[in-house]
């Protein structure tokens, strides 16, 4: 039960930060997306995101900074296994399942619901 509460708290705080950034600044959702993924990579490189993941579990790995965390962890692993080229391939290998699922489900939703652009 405690892990669910921790995940809710960490995931909720990440969402609150994103909402405050969009409401309190002129940042667009796209800017916040890039900021969160980049901050996930930087915090992982500094060793600050791993304790958050251990405490919050899915609350820290599912939101956008978690994607940056997965990219960074994959790049570090790739460097250990393949040298410098692993810095470029490791992140992609580590996140390929999530990327594939996002593309497949996005395509499926576009087929089912006929998307429209906002005026």
Automatic annotation (TrEMBL):
Q: Where are the transmembrane segments?
A: 6-25, 32-49, 55-72, 84-113
- Report if keyword Transmembrane helix is assigned: yes
Q: Which domain of life is it from?
A: Bacteria
Entry annotated with the keyword Transmembrane helix: yes
| Entry keyword set | Membrane, Transmembrane, Transmembrane helix
| Coiled coil residues, start to end | none
NCBIfam families linked = spore_V_AE
Q: What name does the UniProt record give this protein?
A: Stage V sporulation protein AE
């Amino acid at each position: 039960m405690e892990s669910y509460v921790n995940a809710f708290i960490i995931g909720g705080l990440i969402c609150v930060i994103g909402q405050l950034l969009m409401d309190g600044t002129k940042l667009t959702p796209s800017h916040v997306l890039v900021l969160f993924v980049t901050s996930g990579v930087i915090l992982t490189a500094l060793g600050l995101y791993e304790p958050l993941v251990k405490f919050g579990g899915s609350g820290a790995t599912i939101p956008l900074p978690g994607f940056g965390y997965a990219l960074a962890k994959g790049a570090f692993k790739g460097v250990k296994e393949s040298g410098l080229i692993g810095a470029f391939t490791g992140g992609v290998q580590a996140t390929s399942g999530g990327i594939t699922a996002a593309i497949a489900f996005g395509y499926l939703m576009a087929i089912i619901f006929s998307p429209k652009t906002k005026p």
